[in-house]
């Protein structure tokens, strides 16, 4: 069962393996070297203007933090089920759409804040790396694979989390998460007609009992 779960989501677990290796590397590098490397691969305003394709790719290979294991949980709960359902090609297309659009809109919001003197111009070189826009975008698309009525509760929680985050902290990262969620929901055409039984939390709460063997 575990083997099928892993082999059925090759993109998810290949990516997770790459993130494990780069996270291990983070612990080996001197801090000044690590900060320089992360700034070099950040999707900030400066790099999006000068070298957008490179940083849009390389920013997906680093985690802005010291811990890898929380992403193991997130990838197993969100990305792997989404890839099982969509297939690798649709999964990659939807994830990249969410990543690119959320990156540009969030950085555009940051540029507006700089122009309005709401934040310091030093944020032109802000560090912005990681996988969160892809994860939130796929979480939005996964809405259509959750059985009703759980689907609406799930969507309410996701919209509440991202919306409240923007209200509490109107910075570019929360704006990017809200954008990624909306983009994921807008990717419904990629999910329409996909086979597979919907994810039903009720099956986890009330697992089917195996009848005892006949006497």
Report on the structure:
- The protein is mainly α and 215 residues long.
- The chain contains twelve helices and no strands.
- Helix 2 packs antiparallel against helix 6 and helix 6 packs across helix 8.
- The two termini are 29 Å apart.
Strands, count: 0
Helicity, in percent? Answer: 55-70%
Provide the low-confidence segments as ranges: 210-215
- The Cα radius of gyration reads 19 Å
Strand content: under 5%
Task: Give the ordered list of helices and strands.
Answer: HHHHHHHHHHHH
Q: What's the story with the biggest beta sheet?
A: none
Would you tell me the structural class of the helices and strands? mainly alpha
Quote the average pLDDT: 89
> From the structure provided, what is the oligomeric state, counting identical versus distinct chains?
single chain
Overall geometric form = globular
Number of helices: 12
Could you give the distance between the termini? 29 Å
Topology:
Layout: H1 2-7, H2 10-28, H3 31-40, H4 45-50, H5 52-58, H6 69-86, H7 88-115, H8 132-141, H9 150-168, H10 172-186, H11 188-191, H12 201-205
Helix pairs in contact: 2-6, 6-7, 6-8, 7-8, 7-10, 8-10, 9-10
